[in-house]
Amino acid sequence: MPNYQKPWAEPYKIKVVEPLKVTDQAYRTEKIKEAGYNTFLLRSEDVYIDLLTDSGTNAMSDYQWAGMMLGDEAYAGSKNYYHLEEKVQSCYGYKYLVPTHQGRGAEHLLSQCMIKPNQFVAGNMYFTTTRLHQELAGGIFVDVIIDEAHDPSVILPFKGNIDIQKYEDLIKREGPEKIAYITVGAPVNMAGGQPVSMANMKEVSEISKKHGIKVILDATRNMENAYMIQQREDGYKNKTVAEIHKEFCSYSDAATMSAKKDLLVNIGGFVACNDWDLFEELRNMVVIYEGLHTYGGLAGRDMEAMARGIEEAVMDENIKCRVEQVAYFGDKLHKAGIPVVLPIGGHAVFLDARRFYEHIPQIDFPAQVLAADLYEVSGVRAMERGIVSAGRNAKTGDHNFPKLELVRLTVPRRVYTQAHLDVAAYAVEELYEKRHEAKGLNLKYEPKYLRFFQAKFEKKD
């Protein structure tokens, strides 16, 4: 037997390629300045390796592309809707489906249907668009994640878990009638892609049923969560990802979904639920904002691609490839001494900007600086997940100061090779060596909502 580790390869082969534009640093210095040091405002053609997001940036399979040619573009009753409905029912287990153009459409509908003014919405750490939709509907978000999730150096197998005591304290303090629902994100994006255990989800479900509170699953990356349960939680090693995923969903009453992640498509989402009355409200409201309930703002071909994406996403080899590719990238950076969030999550590697740029105070936006600097030196695009993303306090108008000040390097599914990740890792290491040269930023322009998308900055003197 050979004395080296057995090699591993992706469970697919490349059929179509897209050329990448290679630029020099002088060019990138000009472009990031024009973009106000906000990587969202760069043109994609000026990016070499794009790790901004895994939302809608995935490569679809030949099976999905073939399905696109079978799009039934009827305004009402498209056969692709019924195929998608069938796949959601069999894979997720929910009875009713309302498609939307993407995840935030689903969040908006659910928030409007379920939240009354001044009700509380519990959740395991906020997500930007989710919290905003909840607040716009009159809700008050309450973080009930375990404390360890806010510490990037703590290593726990299920760092995204709900803190049961925090949740019960909220119910006791405010009363169950004042709680619209609890949202469980699995895994938790803003904590570094940290998973939730099956045991924790089951306990949350039991407590919620006892008090008549609905459990809403953010199922956007739940198949990644299922894989990590398979690898880390007792009793699930011999179960398939599909089985684990469906069991996890069974402990919730409804789910929002951005299909642009797990389901390997470039557009699409849905709300799914088991309650007929909620479904009635959702399918009435979707007509106002998205389109008829049998298309929800999507073309028939896009719904077909989603239905086929569900089939592929729960295949064990596919999800293993996805999560392990991210683990390879994260381990490479961690072994090089780069401060990252541990354990490595399922969809991205998160750089700890507080430790990376220790000399830059949080008020000077260190994560924003780091994302901009990384693009400037390498052409690799990443995303800020710190004080800019946290926004401002809705009552006082002051900055929210999150404990986590991160830069997210997100790996699109089936898009980049190991060599691309090696190049990105080298760029981060190179930047870390000269980290003391970095300077903070001033906020130059701030939009009213979700400022991280469009804000502009300028360098401090």
Describe, in plain words, how this protein is organized in 3D.
The protein has 461 residues and is of the alpha/beta class. The protein folds into two domains: 25-54 and 316-459, Aspartate Aminotransferase, domain 1, CATH 3.90.1150; 63-313, Type I PLP-dependent aspartate aminotransferase-like (Major domain) (Aspartate Aminotransferase, domain 2, 3-Layer(aba) Sandwich), CATH 3.40.640.10. It contains 16 helices and 14 strands. It has a seven-stranded mixed beta sheet with strand order 2-8-7-6-5-3-4, sandwiched between helices. The chain has a three-stranded antiparallel beta sheet with strand order 9-12-11. It is globular.
- Shape type: globular
Mean pLDDT: 96
Distance between the termini: 60 Å
Number of helices: 16
Number of strands: 14
| CATH H-level superfamily of the largest domain | Type I PLP-dependent aspartate aminotransferase-like (Major domain)
Low-confidence stretches: none
Look at the structure and give the CATH class of the largest domain.
Answer: Alpha Beta
Number of individual domains? 2
* Biggest beta sheet attributes: 7 strands, mixed
Could you estimate the helical fraction of the residues in percent?
A: 25-40%
| Range of strand content | 5-15%
**What is the CATH topology descriptor of the largest domain?**
Aspartate Aminotransferase, domain 2
Assembly type of the chains comes to: single chain
The class by helix and strand makeup works out as: alpha/beta
- Rg over CA atoms, rounded to whole Å, is 22 Å
- Secondary-structure arrangement, i.e. CATH architecture of the largest domain: 3-Layer(aba) Sandwich
Order of helices and strands: HEHHEHEHEHEHEHHEEHHHEHHEEHEHEE
Give, in spatial order, the strands making up the sheet with the most strands.
2-8-7-6-5-3-4
